[in-house]
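$ run holo --ligand "pyridoxal-5'-phosphate" --emit tokens
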Amino acid sequence: TPQSWEARADEYSFYGFTDLPSVHQRGAVVLTHGEGPYVFDVNGKRYLDANSGLWNMVAGFDHKGLADAAKAQYDRFPGYHSFFGRLSDQTVLLSEKLIEVSPFDHGRVFYTNSGSEANDSMVKMLWFLHASEGNPKRRKILTRWNAYHGVTVVSASMTGKPYNEVFGLPMDGFIHLTCPHYWRFGQEGETEQAFTQRLAQELEDTIQREGADTIAGFFAEPVMGAGGVIPPSAGYFQAIQPILKKYGIPLISDEVICGFGRTGNTWGCQTFDFTPDAIISSKNLTAGLFPMGAVILGPELSDRLQAAAEKIEEFPHGFTASGHPVGCAIALKAIDVVMNEGLAENVNRLSPRLEAGLRAIMDRSEHIGELRGVGFMWALEAVKDKPTKTPFDGSLSVSERIANTCTDLGLICRPLGQSIVLCPPFILTEEQMDEMFEKLEQALNKVFAELA
Ligand code: PLP
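-- output --
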């Protein structure tokens, strides 16, 4: 008999970021197409994707205007690089547009194929810059525990997750500071303000211990995404930025998830009221239709890097598909769609409803300890005991069970630690949101009843 799609997927895929026992037991979900925020599997089953793919399919799975923009560009000029001073008109248009919509009054853009590569490229830019300015020892990178910056050797070293130990990472010189999650890491009796101050002090102590002249830059997601949707503690960026400025350490905002509307503003740094020295973008940049990342340099870094490159006549770094014309054409259309077709507005209009619905679910549950998030990115954290915030035993895989039960019910959401993450496409309607609430609560009740 012919093998099922699920068995064929299992036989030929070397899966990344996939819980193998779970996929062997349940089978992979093999998808064929999408409609709005829904995806359909080979058996015709429909799922509401409350994950937007991987945070990126913000315009849903069948946006005609985006597909048309891609097709038109494939017909017109289907591929080119941006080396040797040759680049496509679409690349020029996108760079102009990115600076226009950025918080910067001027700057420059460098393109990659992914968010990981954009972070890697930024690190190389900082190393290149400091060396060119006579500070070759300025190479250490500061990030935070629970941060996710990617999977390449450098960006995985920046990522603050214990799972990277299996690769012998992080490399030396990547330093992780405390995650700014007050609910989990605030100490007994400590106010949120005091917690923020403690983290700012930790940053300054670290800079002084390591030596400011050894530190190349500080990277932060405005809201940690893959760390479990963790907005910063109150006043966090306002507390750390003056310290970074004092020691001349650039602040890089990794907006791979937060960029282009996810937090309710174009950029997460606007939602949290700080201006970084550069922005890392990917995912939403092309509404998930093309693998593309961008480093958007603010005025000072842009000018200094340009001067450093002029000195040796080139910045020796780039990818074959940097600034790919089809990716750029799609990104131009995606920015237009998000900003001018009501998607950003929909996030702002419906995010209070999303928060209220999730809060009601939390209030009705004995085992949801925290709701956190902003805009269209939220997480519910499961706890064994609410008053003491005691987590479930890790071996129970509580969030995976909840996510699997959701999948059975036709809802895709993501388990992260002991949290369930919801980051729906920006096109979500009220009715679809209600469907999400209903299925999610049904799954939570079922799993918590089984664990009781
Ligand atoms: N930075 C952040 C904040 C991310 O969330 C991700 C991916 O989820 C990355 C970087 C890496 O992007 P990519 O998977 O495109 O390499």
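-- notes --
The chain is about 45% helix and 15% strand.
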